[in-house]
Amino acid sequence: MILRTALKWYLWTIKSNWKITKVLYISYDGMTDPLGQSQVLPYIAGLSKKGYEFHLISFEKMDRFKLHKKHIRKFCEDNDIKWHPQDYQLNGGLKNTIMQVRHMRKIALFLHKNHDFKIIHCRSYISALVGLKMKRKLGVKFIFDMRGFWADERIDGNIWSLSSPIYKAIYKYFKQKEIQFFAESDYTISLTENGKNEILSWKEFTTNPPKIKIIPCCVDLDLFDPSKITKIDKQELKQSLEIPEDSLVLGYVGSIGTWYMLSEMLDYFRCLKESNPNALFLFVSGENSEMIKSEAKKHGINQDSIRVTSTLHDKVPLHISIFDHSIFFIRASFSKKASSPTKQGEIMAMGVPLICNSYIGDTDRIVEKYKSGIVIDKFDNITYAGNLIDPSNFDPLKISAGAKNYFSLDKGISSYLAVYKSVCE
């Protein structure tokens, strides 16, 4: 009893004298969203174990928040993360966004007054508006986690139109702020080498380049571990999805949204089906199944060859494990130089070969370096027919090793840790 009391006193003394660095992390994306769960929380949890105390502001879509708030709150409590979820307003346009930025700034200032943050870590451009202001006024170290060329994504994705005077003014505003974010942040995080090189080529940074660290969208290799999935697990999943054992499964994982080229991916599958009648296309996605099947029908594909299912993030590895090979085609544009598709690391971690297109961030370079699939640069039937993946030509262990080398979550956490230490010096 005396020994136990003495040990508690000793540990309390160490903790009392251990200066904890307090960090405010701001995300306009929600933690109940899939990206929040895969690309924010794991990093913060890892860094919180390295002596950093996190307060997390996120903006949550109420439908997802109601479904997943208990799970996220428990994760945060287990990892000593102080979560401050806010209501993300879906409607209201520009006026509403301005009000939410003001609300974000108000919450950030309130928390800073009570906790005296050393670092403010801002995910993407909306959050960075608050981070830059706090750096200028309060001297807080500012990390700009850019995630991509956000303003250009709005143009390239036809969300904003430069023919509109309002959107043209908004675009110009954010391009000006973008230069300020890079110039005044204590560190910028880029997802890709391609994105970093683009920034450093700008005339504004000829003589005084910003500090940029490349950290791609990493993968939790403890979760995406093919060795943890049994043959029986795969058989049961295939049975539940009515996938015959002799099927050649082409898989797609994730949402389709603005950038992913569903029509072209279906054309590729049609060529695959002509070559292998047992081919089947499995979509692991929250997208409407009828929309996907209707689009497949337009491309002359029998709906019996299409499967659409959705699942929670922790079940995604099992679903990928029944892919024989996977696919994603992304519409190339200037903004995609800075894009790192989350699904690439997840697919590679499971040892599954990939068919994808070039000119998307560092994707083609990674595929070629780790011999993890095929890259195409044209979208036509001749190109598809000449680039049908034969899974037997790829080594799953080498593909998984490539993911461990490039996309490891532990490696990503170590990179963030190096950035945090640098800005605190």
Q: Could you explain the architecture of this structure?
A:
This protein has helices at 2-17, 34-39, 41-48, 62-78, 93-115, 124-138, 150-156, 165-184, 193-200, 231-240, 262-275, 289-298, 316-321, 342-349, 363-369, 381-385, 396-407, 409-424, and strands at residues 21-27, 52-60, 81-87, 119-123, 141-145, 187-190, 212-214, 248-253, 279-284, 306-309, 325-328, 354-357, 373-376. The two termini are 42 Å apart. The longest helix has 23 residues, at 93-115. It has 18 helices and 13 strands. Strand 8, helix 11 (262-275) and strand 9 (279-284) form a beta-alpha-beta unit. It has 2 domains: 18-218 and 409-424, Glycogen Phosphorylase B (Rossmann fold), CATH 3.40.50.2000; 226-407, Rossmann fold. It is an alpha/beta fold and 425 residues long. It has a 7-stranded parallel beta sheet with strand order 3-2-1-4-5-6-7, with helices on both faces. It has a 6-stranded parallel beta sheet with strand order 10-9-8-11-12-13, with helices on both faces.
